[in-house]
Specification:
alpha/beta; Aspartate Aminotransferase, domain 1; 42% helix; 14% strand; globular; binds pyridoxal-5'-phosphate
Length: 390
Amino acid sequence: MSTGIELADRVKNLPPYLFARIDQMKAEALRRGADLIDMSIGDPDMPTPAHIVEAMKRAVEKPEHHRYPSYAGMYSFREAVARWYERRFSVKLDPESEVLSLIGSKEGIGHIPLAFVNPGDVVLCPSPAYPVYSIATLFAGGEPHYMPLTEDRGFLPDLTTLPEEVLGRAKMIFLNYPNNPTSVSAGEDFFREVIDMARRHGIIVCHDAAYSEIYFDGKRPLSFLQVEGAMDVGVEFHSLSKTYNMTGWRIGFAVGNREVIHGLGRIKTNIDSGVFQAIQEASITALDTDDGLLSGMRATYQARRDILYEGLRGLGMEVVKPEATFYLWAKVPGGFTSEGFAVHLLEKAGVLGTPGNGFGDPGEGYIRFALTVPEERLREAVERIGEAVR
Ligand SMILES: *Cc1c(COP(=O)(O)O)cnc(C)c1O
């Protein structure tokens, strides 16, 4: 087909999509009617809690919500975010200037480089990671500098090895703890180091905390903003997607440094028109939810984590014990590449995981399993994997 229509370089130069072969194999297996256990999807399998759905039903009836929303988010939504932050992290936020609604946190992460990154500026991006950080950087004309996350360092980047030349050109750093895909949390010492570096080199810190409420063994993750000086250098991105099983609703928020929030808001007012107000109103109900409900969700994921973690270890696999998130990051057995092992599991066990190299080169040698399937299916998966690796 030759229409004379040509893609822009920024699309042509996107990194190659690595999962085409696996997607095709999955589609074929499903066509054959194979009984697949799909642990490749980072999307909660449980529904949005009923009281949030009920709040949405009431909100959608209100004509005032049928009009354009306010760009920054309803004041009442931003107040609910500030209440939630104070309750959960003891961090005080000004709803007016330090909170911004987002159409899912992906939207804010995808847009923020446009506000601050000039062509040629460096953005420090973890690897392996959620791909949006580096792609948003590229869309803004920036240059990603990858910081490898390796097991020997607890999957925290080594800031001391960043070259001076890179730090001199760096405008922004993306971080994500609790971390997808490696399932670890970060401690206060690390965040202090980040703040110190950001101060010295004038780097804006963008911390993605999408998984802050999915944690295990009672080890509650920190907010970056809890650490002294964080508000001077950065913002935190949050999402209702994972915390309240609301991935389809598309709502999140950015909080923190008011100049950074203002800059992101400037981009957004020129691109989108905010979040449907009925969703914002239902989200107020979500954010005010009693923590008991979230404890129940955590217990569900923790029971699943234990089954898969113990199960895979019992098969002799090396697995990172998840502190948080609903992912499990495992080494592929000797002799396999990440993709080779994913293909092997799909063919021999009908089990689907995500090859680690898809999150960046340092993810090679790993596979990610999502704990978004019920316990009996996880037990079945362990059994089938056991037969496939025997
Ligand atoms: C799921 C996820 C998000 C959240 O995306 P939404 O757009 O809020 O649904 C953000 N960051 C990471 C690392 C994620 O895995």
